[in-house]
Every structure is written in C-alpha cells, then in structure tokens.
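Filed under: proteins

Residues; backbone shape codes:
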Amino acid sequence: MEMIIKYVAYQDCVVQTIEVLNDKAPVTDTNIPSHLDQMLDILVQEENERESGETGPCMEYLLHHKILETLYTLGKADCPPGMKQQVLVFYTKLLGRIRQPLLPHINVHRPVQKLIRLCGEVLATPTENEEIQFLCIVCAKLKQDPYLVNFFLENKLKSLASKGAPNVISEDTLKGQDSLSTDTGQSCQPEELSGAAGMEQTELADDDLSSSLDNLTVTSLPEAAVVRPNQDYNLVNSLLNLTRSPDGRIAVKACEGLMLLVSLPEPAAAKCLTQSTCLCELLTDRLASLYKALPQSVDPLDIETVEAVNWGLDSYSHKEDASAFPGKRALISFLSWFDYCDQLIKEAQKTAAVALAKAVHERFFIGVMEPQLMQTSELGILTSTALLHRVVRQVTSDVLLQEMVFFILGEQREPETLAEISRHPLRHRLIEHCDHISDEISIMTLRMFEHLLQKPNEHILYNLVLRNLEERNYTEYKPVCPEDKDVVENGLIAGAVDLEEDPLFTDISPDNTLSNQEWLGSSPPATPDHPKNDGKTEVHKIVNTFLCLVPDEAKSSYHVEGTGYDTYLRDAHRQFRDYCAICLRWEWPGSPKALEKCNLEAAFFEGHFLKVLFDRMGRILDQPYDVNLQVTSVLSRLSLFPHPHVHEYLLDPYVNLASGCRSLFSVIVRVVGDLMVRIQRIQDFTPKLLLVRKRLLGLEPEGPIIDHITLLEGVIVLEEFCKELAAIAFVKYHASSTP
C-alpha cells in the first residue's frame, strides 16, 4: 500500500511539473523545483528499500515514459525561465545519488548526451556552475565504468554522407556505426555494449590505433582543414569550452573533468579524444600563447627560484607578493599550464598520451621554443635557456619527457663523427652554448644538461656519451703475453703505466695517500666470489692516483678543517644509489665489452658533448669560479653512471688510451703539468691560495683583490674535483664488490 501511495505521488509530481510548460513566470515562482526534489527523494527511497540492482516502479516509470527527454526539452527551451538550471541540477543529483547504473539505458544516456551539448555553448552564463557540476558527475560515472564512454562517442557519418562527403561509406558500415543512435526504446545491457559500440570501432582500436598514433604528425592547420574521424566527443568539447571560462573555479573543474576522461582505458575513446576533438590544439595553443606573453628578458634566477607551481593552485596576487618581479604573473601562468599538460599526459591512456605528447613536441617545442633557443641575441638566449631548464626540471611524465629529449637531443643513436656534429641543429647549438663567450649562458646551459642527465630516460646518456664509447676504441689493445698476468702484484693492468713513478708525482707526500692498511680497513672484504684482484684495476690505486694528482704545494684543504676526501663519500654514496635506481631497468652490462669483439680500428671521437666539457676542463685555471663549479659538476654526474664503459673512460687512470685519444684523467694531468709551471711564477702562492679558500668558505672577510685570483680559484676547484672523483671511484667499487 505504501509503495502504491509513493508511485501515485511520483506520477503526480511528474504531471504537475509538465503542466507548467506554457507558464512564463520564472521557474522559482512555480512548484517545479520542489516537485523535482520530491521525485528525486522518492527514487532514492525506493532504491534504498529494494535489493541491489532491482528497478522499482517509479524508476521504471521515469525510464519508460522518457521523463528525462521531456525535462531536457524544457531545459533547452528554458521554459519557464530558469528551467535549464533546474534540469541540470536534477540530472546531476539523479546520477550522483542513484547507485544502480543508469547510463546504459537509452532513455538516460540519450538525453544526457543531448544535455551535454547545451553545456559550454556560451561562456559566463548564469548556469555555468550547474553545467560544470553536471559534466563532472558524468565524467565520474565514466571513470567508475569506463566501457560506458562508448555511448558518448557520437557518429556523424550520416551528416557527412548527406553533405556529399568524399568518403565512400557502405550501407552496412552506416548501420553498424549508427547502432548507438538507434532508438530501440530498450535498455542496453553491458553485455550488449560491445555490439552497440560498432564492430568497426573495435577493429580500428585493435589494429590501427597504435600505428596511427605512433606516426601521428600534428600540424597547425586551420580547424576547417583538419581531417577528423567520423565521430564527435561532445563531452570533451563542452569541457574544452568551459576551460576558457573567465571564472577560474569553473576552468579548473573543466580541467579536472578532462583529466578523468583522458585516463579512460577504452581505445576508441582515446582515438576519438585526440583525433576528433580540439584537445591537442587547446593544450598547445594555450602553452604557446602563455609562453609568448612572457617578457623578452626575465632574470634567470627568478625563473629558477619562482615557487613550485601546481596547475590547480594558480592563484597569485601581485600586491601581496614581497618578492614580485616583472613578468612573474605571466611566468606562473605558463608554468602552471605546463604542469597541467604534464599531469594530463601522465594520467592519460597510453595511446592518447603519445598523441598529446607529440602535439606538444610539434606545436610547442619546435614551433615556439626552438626559434627562441636558436636566436643570436644573448639576452634572448639566456631567457629561453633558463625557461628550457625550468621545463626540464618540472616534467614528470615519461611520455612527455621522451618527446622533450628527442626535441633537445634528436633521435640519433649511431656514433658521432666530427663532420656530423651539427646533424641535429638544436643539440649542436645547445652544446656549443656550454662554451659560450657569455659565462651566464654557459652556466645556464650546463645546468640544463646537468638536470637532463638526472631524468629517468636512457636515451639521454646514450645520445650524449654512450654511443661513442660502445666499441671501446679509445683503448689500445695489447694482447696479453703468456708470462703476463691480468693484474700484476702492484695492482696495475698489464702494460699500464704506473703514474706514481711519473715525474709529476715524484714529490708527493705519503701523508696524502691511503696506506694499504687503511684501505683494507675501509674497503669491502675479499670473498671467494668477489676476489680483490678480479681483473679490474685495484681501486686503492685509482683513489690514491686522483688524490695525488694535485701537488702538495698547490693544495690548501689540509689547512682547513672538514674539507678532506672523506666528506665527499657520503654524497657520492647517496647519488650513486639514486643513479643505480634510475638505470636498473635499462639492463646495462656489468662488465666492459670484450676488446676482441670491439671494432678498435674505427676512429674514436669522444662526441660533441664530452669534447666541449674536456675543452672547458682544460681551461680550468683560466675560467671564472662559477663556470668551473658547473663544468666539474656535470662531469661528476657523468662519472656516477653505473655503466662499465663510462666508468672506464672517466674514472680509470690506467686505461691504455689509443693514440690521439684523451680521457678525463689525461685532461687533468695536462692541467696539473701547466699548473706546476705557473706556480713558480707566483710569489707567496701558498698563503694566497689559503686566503682565497677561506674567503670562498666565508671564514675570512672580503678584502683587497688578490693577484691571479682566477688561477687560485681554479686550483681549489681542481683539488676538490679530484677528491670527488676519488670518492665516486671508491663508492662504485664498493657497490660492485658487495654481494
């Protein structure tokens, strides 16, 4: 009896709601809002009183009599005035409060789809808040049941055919793909959905989607000229319109809705999203416009230090900011939108992510950023490189990072030759900027490369360094004689030179080396599986060699407490552990490629990147302190990589270099030789060196300018760099020797 009463009351609410069709009074002056609330309350109560999944008579009445279609018609006509807002609220509450799946019913998803088209048509309307709430609840429902998205991929084959479209479309194709919009008046059950979505869509998704997105080239053609597949994705289009809302809260909500939609795993939806909507254009065009709105010149320090930006929290008040600078508002807006693009691609379904990232690559990186990076104005180069550096630091999506790496470095993986170093113009220009006449540009570009090397992408190190070391043709192969052993008693590789007998090192004090007893106490113990003499140069020889490179009279750290070699061990251990975690999935070999299998006859070229770094390192005594710090920082980053060829080339002083080849160690040896000659010409060298070190550490106040200040600062950086290399060598040996 109670159910009958509710049913009658429900019908009465529906009838009274519809009876006011011709009423011109505002909807708020009628009983419609209260009737709609009563209808909803009855439906919710009915569901709560029934078993899960069972449809009650009131819900059956709503579905069978197409009540939602009627309400949509009233909302579209906005009759009575304000009705659209009431309909949006009712739809939102209905989808949000009813637990049973409603969207599979044709008399639900069809009016929902029609109502979606009304959203975002005009910006800043009184119903904008209700529109975004409605769209977001639909997105949330699709996130719960992703297969339902197929109901929202509308076909437009018929309209194309009626307009004389050039596509030849068979009658069977029309029937198959138009099955979604055929009004059967029946509920579509989940098991029927795959058929409703159309066989052609499924086959395209399985067979063509990956290849089409891999080969996708996004161009900046006018919208009318862009060839679109025969589907509409109005849910996305409405959200895209609302992202342009002047109300920031509405725009953020629309972005959240798009974030939900791109993450749906349905291949057909991913294809439609990237090829049938303007999502790619919206992301890239807004990136471009925000980038172009930046001032021509921004202080690189401001770009680097501006607070971390999250796309949903882009709120900034110039008046309340004590650290404001010209262009800060524009910079935060650009970084905020780039963060949104990055997060969107990170969350997106795989093929959608690839298409979106390619669009950013083609339309923004190449179309907007590259011309700025390739310009000749020093001020422009500095600003654009600082922005690139900030973007490199900020990116977290693997797919977008891949596109960024290809943009900066190119896709080449074959060994470099000196004649072809400009094959990828941007890569060549950026590496050349590491040795620019402007120290500011050099430092900023080096910092960009340093952060790039910390990104989890194998192509970065391979393109910059590894591809030139694969064949180990920097070494001179000497076949081992039968009477020789792999490692002689003093720990040297057969045929290697004992650098401690070199004239450069004859005056080294024993106090500056690690004794065998000290070494045994700090290094890992030998085990049957990990013997000390395992074919590698004994690491204590390498450590002592680096520690002894700088002669005693050029050292100043032992006069200042807390600046010993051991201070670098902790940092080296932490950094090496981080690099190992990044490189673990790249499956690098544990030992160098056998020389017998290497093409040692091929001419060796260290590559453009290492060439510039080695050239810079060779001028360490004549360069500003800040430049030297950045050059050695990049080289130490490279030395940390756990690849055997990188380790051998950068950290093994005893490698037999082929004729005409240089390594990091040989470059440092030449610098030390030059230093020992120049020391003799400087009066009171040691006291001046100690004073400069104390000033750099803040232990002494600034005073009169000291002669040869650049050389003295260079010597200090050189000493610290050698200690850092020794610490890295020790940590890497310890890690490789630990079972």
Strands lie at 154-155, 231-232.
